Amino acid sequence: MAAQSASLLDRWPARVVALLIAIGMGGLLYHMSPDLSLELQTLPERLPMPQAAVPDDPAFEACLARESEAIDKMRDEGLLDEAKAASFIAGAEARCRATTSN
After folding, report:
1. Which of 23, 41, 58, 74 is deepest in the core (most CB within 10 A)?
2. C-alpha to C-alpha distance for 74 and 80, rounded to whole angstroms
3. Is the residue at 38 inside a domain?
4. What is the pLDDT, as a whole number, of residue 36?
5. Domain count of the chain?
6. 53 inside domain
7. Is the pLDDT of residue 52 over 60?
8. How far apart are CA 36 and CA 30, in angstroms?
9. Domain membership flag for residue 1
10. pLDDT (tens digit, 9 = 90+) per residue, 10-24?
C-alpha cells in the first residue's frame, strides 16, 4: 500500500496560520473589550427614563383605580397570588401612565 499523504490542513504551515489567526482574534477582543465594558457601564445613563405620572392627574388616578379594583377582585377570588398581583399592579400602572401621558 502506498503511504497516504497528509492533507494540506494537517501540515505545519496551516497550523502556524491557524495559530496566528487565533492570536490575532484574541488581540482584537482584548483591544475591543475596554470599549465594550465602558459601553455596558454607561448604558443605564444613556437609556431614556420613564416620566413619572403626575399624582394629581385625574385620568391617571381613575385608570389606576379601575385597574387596581379588577386586580384586587381577582386576588380575592383566589385567581392571583400576592406576587402576581404586585406584578399586575406594576403593569397596570405602566399602562395607565402610557395611556394618560400627553
Report:
1. 74
2. 6
3. yes
4. 64
5. 2
6. no
7. no
8. 10
9. no
10. 888 999 999 999 999
Residue 38 has a pLDDT of: 63
User: Nearest-5° angle of CA 20, CA 23, CA 26?
Assistant: 150
CB 52 within 8 A of CB 84: no
Give the Cα separation of 61 and 95 in Å (integer).
Answer: 12
Structural domain range at position 81: 58-100
| 36 and 63 fall within a common domain | no
More confident position, 52 or 17: 17
Nearest Cα residue to 95 out of 50, 56, 55: 50
Within a domain: 2: no
pLDDT of residue 29: 83
Amino acid making up residue 81: D
Is 35 exposed, middle or buried, given 0-12, 13-18 or 19+ CB atoms closer than 10 A? Answer: exposed
pTM over cut 0.70: no
